[in-house]
Design brief:
alpha/beta; 203 residues; elongated; Helicase, Ruva Protein, domain 3; 7 helices; 5-stranded mixed beta sheet
Amino acid sequence: MAMNAYPSRIIEQAVEEISKLPGIGKKSALRLALHLLKRPESQSLQLAHAIVQLRTETQFCPQCHMISDDGLCGICSSHKRDESLVCVVEDMRDVLAIENTGQFTGLYHVLGGIISPLAGVSPSDLQIESLVQRVSSGKITEVILGLSPTMEGDTTAFYLTKKLKEFPIKISTIARGIPIGGDLEYTDEITLGRSIVGRVVYE
């Protein structure tokens, strides 16, 4: 059977939507659709409900912009975290990667992306002004630029440094034990942990 000759319009529509997810082609989408048909109806309904909740009820921490169920996230509201230390990251995946190292006790600031002119992402599209506001409060003494060592990550780091240079804070970056061009979320925990601990002043 050709991949464009589906047995029903419903299957075709499901495959079309599932294949829009990153890393999933039409063949994988068809396998997933058929798998859902084989499972109890309750499981498919639970999945559908979870997706609807994800889009309609997801909130973001008003301080660090990480996904939160209600108000401040668990990290920002914890009394065990060092409020004077803030690690700036691209997205929540990087927060999870750093947290898994167990080496960082400060807070985070999630930019929601990195500056990328080719992809149409400018500084105004990111949570940069809110970072400047956090730093201006005077509670923060060090900002760690926990951005992936790519051209876009370096561009973003340079831009942030220019925005924050007027404040009396230390600006550091994670040590380059991480390969150039690599992503934080794919870096092993030991290397990432050592990079946080061995951070260096950003120049």
